[in-house]
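User: Predict the structure for this protein chain, please.
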Amino acid sequence: MRSTSQPDRTYLIGDFSFDPAEKLLLHRTDGRKLWLHPLEAQLLELLANSPGEMLSKEAISSALWNMPRSREIEKRIRQTIFVIRGALGKDAIKTGLNEGYGLVLESSNSRPCEEPDAFRRSAYGFKRHYGFAIVESGLFSLSCAIPLFIETAYQRDVWWNGMGLAGMLVLGLSFSFALSAFVITDATVGRWKPSTSLIAGLGFVVISGLVICSVGLQVLPDVPITETYFFQAQTAQFAFAKSICVYSLPVFMAAVLVPYRSIISVEGLSFQQDLEDAYAYEESIYRLDVRILVLLLAVFSIYSVFTTSYLLENLRPSENQNIYSFLLLARNATYFLIAIIGIWWYYENQSRSASSQPT
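Assistant: Here is the predicted structure, written as structure tokens:
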């Protein structure tokens, strides 16, 4: 791919100042910064170098790829134009009758913007969906901390000493690990294959689960605490580990991290600098069917309701039974919230991506 960057040159485009050398869009009013990836910056500079003109797709293909116009390149150009419009505004680039594009350009000057390479980031991924990441990380941390108290609530007068500090530790660790999983997943968009980066993100969550379980092993007793009418052989440590490994981690992975990876992969297609790699990357994205997620949630709900009801009906009388039951139901509620919010977010973003694809 050809490089079109001219050193020490910036452009005023609408409310933004564009520095192609830094691949930086700087909002001139509020100072907001957006960093473009190479292809986006090269195409925007190509349009900026021809103010008032409409560049055909043939001209763009020749300038950027030194190749004749093809169906694959047309799609690539449309995707890149779509991303640039998302940053500058839909009216910043005009579409001509001859299937070309032109930039609405105000003026130019010769003062570059400077920013360390290490801080170059896109407008996608974690920055775009940070609210979702924070909410889901918070719910995940609750789903990990509540079981500490569940496993000791039946005899809380004996076992709750020091449990508050351990609960805060698990809460902080699980929140940090979950949020880091989002960041790690986002950081590999377009740099690793989707399957590889997804495995890395899931692997990090698994490691976090092991760390959280190790905390439970240190503070929880290795004997059964909750008394039931049926045979109860699970120690408090084992029951806590089961809550983390069988419920919290799988729900977070299936309903949150995998859909998140799919969405930001689709949004990040324009990050690919090489045309052939970009299309191989697009084909390898793992897209979930929302109906499958809903079906899994339904199966999990039925199983959870059945096992919880069975356990509560077979508890032996205890003065702490109400506290135990409340915490058990609160833990289950966090599972459902994690899954419901994740599926809803995935459905909304999947629908938005499908309806806004450039044509």
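Residues 107-124, 270-285, 355-359 have pLDDT under 50 and may be disordered.
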